[in-house]
Amino acid sequence: MFAYLLRRIGYALPIMAGVALVCFALVHLAPGDPLVSILPPDASADLAAQMRTLYGFDRSYPEQFAVWVWRALQGDLGTSIASGRPVTTEVMTAVGNTLRLAVLATFIGFVLGSLFGFVGGYFQRAWPDRLASTLAVLGVSVPHYWLGMVMVIIFSAILGWLPATGGGPGDKDWAWDWNHLQYMVLPAITMSVIPMGIIARTVRALVAEILAQEFIVGLRAKGLTHLGIFAHVVKNAAPTALAVMGLQLGYLLGGSILIETVFAWPGTGFLLNSAIFQRDLPLLQGTILVLAMFFVVLNLLVDMLQTLLDPRIARA
Amino acid sequence: MTRPLLPRLLPCAALSLAALLSAPAALAQEKVLRIAMTAADIPRTLGQPDQGFEGNRFTGIPMYDALTHWDLSKADAASVLIPGLATSWAVDAKDKTKWVFKLRPGVKFHDGSELNADSVVWNVRKVLDKDAVHFDASQVGVTASRMPTLRSARKIDNLTVELTTSEPDAFLPLNLTNLFIASPAHWQKKFDAASSANPGATPADKAKAAWTAFAADASGSGPFKMARFVARERLELVPNKTYWDPKRTPKVDRVVLLPMPEANARTAAIMSGQVDWIEAPSPDAMAAIQGRGHKIYFNQQPHVWPWQLSFAEGSPWLDKRVRQAANLCVDRTGLLKLLGGMMGSPKGTVPPGHPWWGNPKFDIRYDVAAGKKLMEEAGHTPAKPLKVKVQISASGSGQMQPLPMNEFVQQSLKQCGFDVQFDVIEWNTLFTNWRKGAKDPSANGANAINVSFAAMDPFFAMVRFTSTKTFPPVSNNWGYFGNAEFDKLIADARTSFDDKARDAALAKLHARIVEEAPFVWIAHDVGPRAIAAKVKGVVQPRSWFIDLAPVTVD
Fold first, then answer.
1. Bond into A282 cis (ω within 30)
2. What are the backbone angles phi and psi of residue B21, rounded to the nearest 5°?
């Protein structure tokens, strides 16, 4: 088990290095001037050159990359060109906001997805299966930003039940009360529809497959109740369902640029949107790097959890 | 012995309930104005805002003063220059590169320190003197480019300061509306705190930390003070009760500024009552917003949406008749309909009645017959059209609705014998190309470019597009338009130090620009904003800016 974990961590290190290189290269390949947010196009050529020197953009790309990686290893992702604030602070604040939203969205998606999946799997080709499958297909097919807008129109603009946008009532610290939670309801539901659909379809297929296996026939022959059999199905489906949930959480942690922009939720998607539009390279690089690292670490954690649930994986 | 839990909890519960009940009452008494900006982040708060003129509008002008101000008190006249922290100014009679500014006595920053000549010198050095401890590279770009000739400042006495320019420049007082004066004493406190927290840091790192701390707890001398700042979420401003201009003492108790870049999100926010004011509402939601009893404000704005034409060798626009024909063949009334009325029909870069108007001999209007005639004289007809290629963006700050608008103009020009093709590129790339010029490979064969611009001061409105000194890559004369005549007109304006003489010189320049038509003037933005009916006292001037001080909330 320990050797397996060490091996998995060993695999993660080159992935992280590769991610850093790809992230730096992609950001610099994009067209546009990195100083566009602080240097108007009417600035003189001398001033533009002076600013490039001050921000280190006059150095060669390998040199810029080396400096960036060296600082990142020490926890310093640089300073946002547009806001002047440290990128690490900016990203971690946004990650906190997105994490809150992503966890709730994943929870909703996992609960509903599992419910629809089990119902579909248990009642194959009957109407509950058709209903659950329709909802699952809708979940992965409906453009979520459109769904978000529709929900805003209905629940905010028409009914006035929930706030249309924002990350909270503006208090300094987040609190788990209705005053704050109401800001999460619409974006979390919107964000949960894709994981819900994916988890439902995965679980449905798994349950159908498990139910067709011989050990289920054996359990039935032994006279196990439906609940007992259900417990065995859950136990066998759990590792895969968890892996899918972990991946979905990873995707959602990246923040949905569209959803967070529609709801002005101050998470990583909103931050990326802002960084892209302002060509804020340090912020863009730092955010992508942190999110990619989260994804790598999350995969690692899911692998470990799967190994705990099913020790055969470590032996494989 | 432990006391039972319930009696211990009861007083706490009662207090909490009382606090809960009294809080809404207290909030109800407070008159709060909540504004949704188009920016994706709070514009920088340390004195020199980013995010273009929206930054100046919401974190510059409310929190800070400049030496000179724009008059934002009238909706029916051009916004003109008025005294700000300087009560008067004059150029040196012998050396026209030196200006003397007399400062307003008794002005205090929000931290209680006094404004004096040292404060002004300190604020000039923050962006122009790399050796100053408080020099901040991040503020240089947005400041120095807006006052390109300013070189240094010197204290004469406590309330008199001398500014020096690189060449005689009558535009300096106009440019100085962009230099916001921050409190040196407050910054010094932040610097000292940074020094105590990290004594081993370099002075540059301490200064950087001081500016970051200053941005989160700013101090200017404007009518509003910073009360609360949550990065990327909100900025709260409260009145500066001791503001030096009683006419601009704020009427609301608090202004809350929220970044909301998505137009539909802003629209939903005002429809749901979450905010009282939104910038740039979604054009197709105007009727619905008004249906809820909210009001749409708009006015002429010095925001020009043109095609800037190329004068490079081989350009189809080298013939003046073609340029004038294009200006005559754009159906601006139809375009106005397309935009739901949210557009101004241009007669030039500035409108008639503006001090820089100048009565040009060429009248920009919709006259297909006259346009066709000019095109025929130039050898082009709808059957034998003239091919032109315009570089445009699909979206972008200040670009209004570039795709449908450009397609409309394309159809409009077709009737006069223009075959318009587009090269659609990403907004930041277009913006960068603007600086490279029509002869650069980035133009991709285009002989016109569609970048909207602010025309607040003479340099931005006219000089940068018409001087031979501003050919790429120096500035934005993308099309290489200019000659000795225009250079002389510009020089005359730059060296006319009396306000009336300067305006007269600029009027001559503007008239000649319109006559020569280096642009196809298509639209002026009108800066629409939707504001709840309970918000009163809003004056939307003919400016990019707006004064929040006289606004009240019922």
1. no
2. -75, -35
| Better-predicted residue by pLDDT, A268 or A35 | A268
pLDDT (0 to 100) of residue A40:
67
Q: Can you give the three-state secondary structure of A98-158, one letter per residue?
A: HHHHHHHHHHHHHHHHHHHHHHHHHCCCCHHHHHHHHHHHHHHHCCHHHHHHHHHHHHHHH
Alpha-carbon distance of A147 to A136, in angstroms, equals 15
Query: Is the complex ipTM more than 0.90?
Result: no
Instruction: Name the pTM for this structure.
Output: 0.82
Q: Which residues of B touch A157 (CB under 8 A)?
A: 268, 271-272
Q: What are phi and psi of A37, to 5 degrees?
A: -75, -25
A40:B141 CB<8 A: yes
The DSSP annotation for B74-108 comes to -SSSB--EEESSEEEEEE-SS-TTEEEEEEPTT-B
Do B26 and B36 contact (CB within 8 A), yes or no? no
Q: What ranges in B217-317 are assigned the alpha helix state H?
A: 263-271, 286-291
Percentage of chain B exceeding pLDDT 90: 74
Between CA B151 and CA B530 the distance in angstroms is 41
Q: Tell me the helix, strand and coil percentages in chain B, rounded to 5.
A: 35, 20, 45
Q: Rounded to whole angstroms, how far apart are CA atoms A43 and B148? A: 8
Give the β-pairing of B552-553 and B535-536.
antiparallel
User: DSSP of B311-359, one letter per residue?
Assistant: -STT-GGGSHHHHHHHHHS--HHHHHHHTTT--B--SSSS-TTSTT---
Q: CB burial class (10 A; 0-12, 13-18, 19+) of residue A227?
A: exposed
Q: Find where tokens 């409310």 sit.
A: B62
Are B200 and B232 within 8 A, CB to CB? Answer: no
Q: Are A273 and A288 in contact (CB under 8 A)?
A: no
A115 vs A196: CA distance, rounded Å? 9
Substitution target from B232, B235, B432 for chain A, most A beta carbons within 10 A: B232
Which residues from B are below 8 Å from A85, CB to CB?
212, 215, 231
Sequence length of chain B is 554
Residues in A touching B145 (Cβ below 8 Å) = 39-40, 42-44, 47
Q: Residue for token digits 């009532």?
A: A169
**Residue A206 burial (10 A CB sphere; 0-12, 13-18, 19+):** buried
pLDDT at A306 over 80: no
Residues 6+ apart with CB under 8 A from B245: B223
